[in-house]
């Protein structure tokens, strides 16, 4: 494998992992606040379809991203109303959101399945792109790759360097204590859930506008569930979310390369297509063996409803 091909594979890996980074960072914020939202697949699907429709209708990728973000935030707000205000079960509500979102996206997007968008060009960062070998990989990328890095830095800074991030983590660990010192647990959780839904919608729009500029039913293809798994893989830490997303992206690109390279291998294409998901399952099985580490980093009130009168 020559140097140019390695550059292409690594560069494609960064783009393939970008929607997962964006969605998983949003889910990380949800869960750090103590709310478990299993509806990522539905939110990403709705973000993808509405983002595609807006980008196609207005010939603007930026408006498409905004539409995807708002679609995710809107349905996440409904989830927050059910689980935070009305105290519905978070697991059941999240699963219902996932099923509803995928179904609604397929229905809404049916008239647009034969259409596609103009591919968005790569952005080159002056001077940095001229760095030998690394420059074309990291500094000649789709704009969403750069945005995912900015979001990663912002989420990390918010969680570990800001007072608001400390409050959010406190709400996830002990909401009763946060309430006792006069903090609004409900308000913090609402903001976290809506922010998480917005990023899931943005991740879906990234898929339908930048990664594969088209809409087909099933475009998300389980990435919402992978994003949820990545948060556990990362033990609720942003840097490991980044690594996990690129691991999945690398396996995805590797199997696409094997299928398209013409290399004769006696492995069914269906098995190759399942490799990213198998890799994720294997990693989760391995890390789940270390229950002490998971308990150490998992928010103590994750998935538990909070009532101020208790």
Automatic annotation (TrEMBL):
Pfam families: BPD_transp_2 (PF02653). One of its GO terms (molecular function) is transmembrane transporter activity. It comes from the Bacteria. GO terms for cellular component: plasma membrane. It is found in: Cell inner membrane. The keyword Cell membrane applies. The chain crosses the membrane at residues 6-28, 35-56, 62-84, 91-109, 143-160, 190-212, 218-236, 241-258, 270-287. It is a multi-pass membrane protein. Keywords: Cell membrane, Membrane, Transmembrane, Transmembrane helix. This is ABC transporter permease.
């Amino acid at each position: 494998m020559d140097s140019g091909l390695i550059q292409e594979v690594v560069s494609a890996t960064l783009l393939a992992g970008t929607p997962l980074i964006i969605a998983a960072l949003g889910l990380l914020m949800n869960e750090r606040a103590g709310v478990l939202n299993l509806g990522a697949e539905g939110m990403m699907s709705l973000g993808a379809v509405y983002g595609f429709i807006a980008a196609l209708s207005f010939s603007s990728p930026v408006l498409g991203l905004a539409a995807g973000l708002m679609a995710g935030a809107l349905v996440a707000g409904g989830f927050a109303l059910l689980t935070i205000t009305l105290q519905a079960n978070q697991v059941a509500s999240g699963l219902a959101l996932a099923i509803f979102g995928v179904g609604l996206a397929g229905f809404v997007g049916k008239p647009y399945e034969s259409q596609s968008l103009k591919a968005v060009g790569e952005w080159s960062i002056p001077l940095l792109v001229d760095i030998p070998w690394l420059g074309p990989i990291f500094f000649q990328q789709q704009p969403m790759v750069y945005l995912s890095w900015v979001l990663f830095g912002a989420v990390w800074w918010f969680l570990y360097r800001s007072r608001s991030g400390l409050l959010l983590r406190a709400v996830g660990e002990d909401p009763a204590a946060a309430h006792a010192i006069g903090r609004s647990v409900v308000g913090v959780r609402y903001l976290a859930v809506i922010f998480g839904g917005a990023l899931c919608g943005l991740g879906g729009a990234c898929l339908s506008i930048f990664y594969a500029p088209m809409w087909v039913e099933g475009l998300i293809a389980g990435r919402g569930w992978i994003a949820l798994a990545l948060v556990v893989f990362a033990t609720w830490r942003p840097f490991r979310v980044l690594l996990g997303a690129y691991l999945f992206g690398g396996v995805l690109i590797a199997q696409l390369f094997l299928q398209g390279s013409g290399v004769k291998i006696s492995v069914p294409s269906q098995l190759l297509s399942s490799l990213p998901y198998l890799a994720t399952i294997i990693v989760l099985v391995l890390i789940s063996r270390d229950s002490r580490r998971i308990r150490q980093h998992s928010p103590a009130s994750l998935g538990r409803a909070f009532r101020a009168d208790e």
